[in-house]
Structures are given as structure tokens and as C-alpha cells.
Design goal:
This protein has twelve helices and 19 strands. Helices cover 34% and strands 21% of the residues. It is of the alpha/beta class. Strands 12-13-9-14-8-15-16-19 form an eight-stranded mixed β-sheet, sandwiched between helices. Strands 1, 2, 5, 6 and 7 form a five-stranded mixed β-sheet that branches. Strands 3-4 form a two-stranded antiparallel ribbon.
């Protein structure tokens, strides 16, 4: 393919930017059509988004002119796109190499808001298709406990949900994804240091072993930054570092044959949330809110982000719904109705309304989740949440055809892996 130098922009007021045509030396010219040009354009990949400009919707039009001239209209995300020159040069090179093309004219413009939204949706989908391999088993149900803001009790819901599932006999992984704001170790009463041992299937690789707490006939397997940093230490990392830590916990932890992975998400809709959607595309989001309308509106953003990332929103939990005093009076200290408003707004069911009860805070401080106090108001409410999760997210049974194929492929990979060198 001939190397095509990047052409200087020729500006005409506020009009589109054009390149000087690139002329090929092919003669005679074979028949040429738009389909051939678009096929060639699929070889032009946006290096930031990792997909070709045709599937990303960046090709606004192709015009094949008499004599083999071709004009390509390319819509860029911003007027000052730093990749504009690179993309134009690639378009000219790819189209210029198509048999029958005698000249290439490239016109760039800026995407409309609708085009840009469609492009980002496509980019998120492609990112999920390239999801890295994790150590979370295919059969495990991943529940990401999320909200758009802090202070609504995501960690409390995560810990009590995990403890309630374990009490029913399930093996539950707990990933404290709030790297800088970790609190799960204290709330679950688990302490110690994470250690790595050699992977039985790959002796050259070491895997982190979660810390384990038996609960009833089940157990929780916990991984948190709190096992690597002191409880009073400040983790002062930027977003990419925080996301890399979560990726490390998903790729390099020996979770084993867990039934559920409960992920205590940090507040907001930032790097960690986007990274988790890419790494665990089968995750399901449990949105936590409090009764007030402000919390409800912010929590809705978490649901919006989940759906834009192609994750299922499993339901809504209202935390701190009301305080019940000893004589039976109900006090709605933070308002009421936010749970149903949010559920209606995001089109997801309300799974539980959890009371404001001192036992929840006390259990979090001493490492004894209130979900294990089955006769308390909080214990009864958490039991209802566990039932709702078991109903809406039942454990996957590896008995289907596709499940057996997954197991067979995993066994084949282990059997055909090169043996470790002796000594």
C-alpha cells in the first residue's frame, strides 16, 4: 500500500476541512462502487475507541464520482479531535488502495449529539467484548451494590446481603471495590493480611487467597484494600490506579467455586464503575437509595450508567426508610416515597425497604452483621432482601449445553497448557 503523507488543512471560513486529493496510478480503472469503499474504510480504526470508523458511525457518507474519484465524509467527536490528521491520512491510504480509485477527497465535520451518543454506546459494547479474563467463575452471579452518592449505606447493604446469603448455605465472594474508602473488613469482622500462593493449574502464576469467614453452613470470601493498608491509612490514588486495583482483585484472586460475588461499589459513576462494567459484563446492579428525593435523583444516575454499559438493574433497595421506636411508633426521619419513585423512574422493582435501626450500625462496628439477628426488624428486612435476590438472581446450575461447553473448554485449556519447566 503506498504511503500517503498527511495533507495540510485548507480552511474556508467555518466550512468543512478538506484534504487535497490523493491520486493513484492505476490504469485502466476497474468498476468501483460504494460497498468497496466502505469495506476499505473498515480498516480505519479509531485508536482510542478500538473499533473501525464504519461500525462506530463516523462515516457520514461516501460519494463515488465518474472517473474513479471518491469523496468520504467523516464525522469526528469534537472539532479539535487530536486524531483528525491520523484518521484522514488512514482514510486516504485505505481508499486510495481500492482498485479503480483515482482520487480521494476527505471532508471532516463534527458529530451531532445523537451520533456521539450512539458512538459511545458502540464503544462500551466493544469494550465488553474485549473483557479481560477474570478468576470469577462463569456460574457465579455478580451483584454490584451501587448508588450515585455516598452515605446511603451501600457497604451496610453489601455486607448484610453477603452474610444473609452465606447463612443460607451459599459460598459468597465479597469484593470491596471502594479502594480508598474501604470498610468491609471491620463490618464483616474479618482481619488479617492477604497472601498469594501458586496456582495449581499454572505453577508459574501466583493468586491472592481471600480471607474466609464461615457463616452458618456457608462462608464469605473477602478481598479488600483494608487487608493491604492500615485501617487509618489514606489511599491517595488517582482514578486509573483505583481501577487497576479492582482489576487486580478480579484477575489475580483465587475466588474458587463461589455462588455469588457481592461487590461493594464506591459512590459515583467514574473509573471503577466503568472498569467493572468492562471486566464483568454479566454483573447485575442493585441500586441503593434513601427516602429523600435528592438521594433518589442521584441514585438514578447509577441505574442510567448501568444500562448504558449494558448491565441489568436487578432492583432498588431503600435504606434507612423509617425508625420504629419500642412502643411501635414509626418515624420517617428522612422523608418517604423515594423508594417507589426511584423504582418507577428506572423501571426496576423495589426489593426491600430497610429500617433505620441501631442494630445495623452496632453490627457494623463490631463485625456482626444485623442480617444474622433474624428476630430483629433489620434481620427480618434483610432476610426479605436475600429472598428477593435468590428469586431474581438464582445460582446458575452448570447443567445446560452452553454451561457444559464452558466447563469443557476450561478443562481443555488446562490440559493443553504447556508444562512448567522442571526444577
Amino acid at each position: 500500500m503506498p504511503k500517503v503523507p498527511e495533507q495540510a488543512d485548507q480552511r474556508h471560513g467555518d466550512g468543512p476541512v478538506r484534504d487535497r486529493p490523493y491520486h493513484s496510478s492505476m490504469d485502466p480503472l476497474p468498476p468501483l462502487d460504494e460497498a468497496a469503499v466502505r469495506d476499505a474504510l473498515r480498516g480505519v480504526v479509531d485508536p482510542e475507541l478500538g473499533d473501525n470508523i464504519v461500525d462506530l458511525g463516523m462515516v457520514d457518507g461516501v460519494e463515488v464520482r465518474p472517473g474513479g474519484g471518491v469523496m468520504v465524509r467523516v464525522a469526528l467527536t469534537t472539532p479539535s479531535c487530536p486524531l483528525r490528521g491520523q484518521i484522514k491520512a488512514e482514510v486516504m491510504a485505505r481508499v486510495g488502495a481500492v482498485p479503480g480509485v483515482s482520487a480521494v477527497d476527505v471532508v471532516t465535520s463534527t458529530m451531532a449529539p445523537g451520533q456521539k451518543a450512539a458512538l459511545m454506546a458502540r464503544a462500551r459494547w466493544k469494550a465488553q467484548e474485549r473483557a479481560p479474563k477474570t478468576t470469577v467463575p462463569a456460574r457465579a452471579r455478580v451483584i454490584a451494590v451501587s448508588s450515585g452518592k455516598g452515605g446511603v449505606g451501600k457497604s451496610s447493604v453489601s455486607v448484610n446481603l453477603a452474610a444473609g446469603l452465606a447463612a443460607r448455605g451459599y459460598i459468597v465472594g465479597v469484593l470491596d471495590a471502594d479502594i480508598a474508602g474501604f470498610s468491609v473488613p471491620r463490618m464483616l469482622g474479618v482481619s488479617g493480611q492477604l497472601e498469594a500462593t501458586r496456582d495449581a493449574d499454572d505453577p508459574e502464576r501466583k493468586l491472592i487467597r481471600p480471607l474466609v469467614r464461615p457463616i452458618g453452613s456457608g462462608e464469605v470470601r473477602v478481598v479488600s484494600m483494608g487487608f493491604l493498608a492500615g485501617e487509618d491509612d489514606a489511599v491517595m490514588w488517582r482514578g486509573l490506579m483505583l481501577n487497576r486495583a479492582v482489576q487486580h482483585f478480579l484477575e489475580d484472586v483465587a475466588w474458587g467455586d463461589i455462588d455469588y460475588l457481592v461487590v461493594d461499589m464506591p459512590p459515583g459513576t467514574g473509573d471503577i464503575q466503568m472498569g467493572l462494567a468492562r471486566m464483568l459484563p454479566s454483573a447485575e446492579v442493585l441500586v441503593v437509595t434513601t427516602p429523600g428525593q435528592t438521594a433518589q435523583k442521584v441514585a438514578a444516575r447509577a441505574a442510567t450508567m448501568a444500562r448504558k454499559s449494558y448491565l441489568r438493574v436487578v432492583g432498588v433497595v431503600e435504606n434507612m426508610s423509617a425508625f420504629m421506636c419500642s412502643h411501635g411508633e414509626r418515624y420517617e426521619l428522612f422523608g418517604h416515597g423515594g423508594d417507589l419513585r426511584l423504582a418507577r423512574e428506572i423501571g426496576a422493582p423495589l426489593l426491600a425497604s430497610l429500617p433505620l435501626e441501631p442494630a445495623v450500625a452496632r453490627g457494623g462496628d463490631i463485625g456482626e452483621p444485623a442480617a444474622l439477628e433474624r428476630d430483629s426488624q433489620a434481620g427480618i428486612a434483610f432476610a426479605g432482601l436475600v429472598e428477593a435476590i435468590l428469586e431474581r438472581c438464582p445460582v446458575l446450575q452448570m447443567t445446560s449445553c452452553s454451561a457444559r461447553v464452558l466447563e469443557a473448554l476450561g478443562a481443555l485449556e488446562r490440559a493443553t497448557a504447556p508444562a512448567a519447566p522442571a526444577g
